[in-house]
Amino acid sequence: MLKIESAIQSAKNILIIAHQRPDGDALGSIFAIKKYLEKKRKNYQIYIEGDNNYKDMPFLNFVSFDKKKINRKRFDLVITLDCGNLEHTGLEKIINNLKIINIDHHISNNNFGNINLVDSGASSTTEILTKFFKTINFEIDKDTASALLLGILTDTNNFSNKGTSREAFEISSYLLKKGANIAKFNHNNYKNKEIDTLKFWGKPFERIEKNREYNFAYTVIPKNEMRKAEEDGFIEKIEDLVNFFNNLKGPNFVMILKEQENNIKVSLRTTKENINLSYFANFFNGGGHKKAAGFTINGQLKKTANGWMII
To answer: I want to staple 81 with a disulfide (CB 3.0 to 4.6 A). Which of 18, 128, 193, 300 is the partner?
Structure first.
């Protein structure tokens, strides 16, 4: 951890990035690092690729959404947060060969950074950051505590999935003592479903099938519906659908296939203790966590008399 502090202290211009279409853990991590760098009086730029559910978070005024505005020659340090690999940033070609601090909790992380703070046993990246801040005696204010708690709430699904550990509760208690506002982020995290979103969800729910041989449930979202979701501005809500789908009783795991223009993105979720989805995803050059993973494959979806096929 001292290597991280030293690298940040030596850097003049820092780029902060997280994975594409960031969730609460990625955004909470970005906010916390931003506050830390401001305390250190460091120059920084934040880049986020894709939409998110937290547009009212105060740091978004400082975010760049345009790759063309990212000048790699300007930066001497990159901090990646909640990224299992460089490809998940959307900037892998731009930041390649720059000095990277990699802070993450994905079991599939391959330690791609020059400095790596990776703990696959942590509930979230914000849990790791909280421990880091405690170690270096960085004083966490109320807003930072709220952002850090957001990450834990997001990745434990409000303390309901297998990522919930005793340490996650202890860290959360510490953040609440620091003034974290749990109600504010719970509203953003869980009470954010619009009528149009639920109507969209209805279509993939109608297509749910069960593979009885391997005991998993799956559904598909054709590219015309994916395109419509993007046009209507709720493409990010599809990840919420995946998590909701995981509440099904019976299957060993659930799978959603999302058809793109030239490939298919697959999201996997499970609540079973004896299943490690990251191994399955890694087989297809994907990654993720033990209970939540994903990958991309070439092909297109086709409806047949026997169900959906990938061609």
So the answer is: 18
Query: Tokens standing for 289?
Result: 């966590």
Q: Which CATH class, in words, describes the domain spanning 195-310? A: alpha beta
Average pLDDT over residues 137-154: 93
Distance in angstroms (rounded) separating the CA atoms of residues 39 and 285: 39
- 3-state DSSP assignment of residue 94: helix
Tokens at residue 149, please?
Answer: 């708690």
CATH no. for 2-190 = 3.90.1640.10
Global pTM value: 0.74
**13 CB-side CA count, 13 A:** 9
- Residue 44's Cα: distance from chain center in Å? 21
More confident residue, 96 or 146: 146
Q: Report yes or no: 81 and 33 within 8 Å, Cβ to Cβ.
A: yes
Mean pLDDT of 290-310: 87
Cα–Cα distance between 294 and 212 in angstroms, integer? 21
Distance CA 102, CA 118 (A): 7
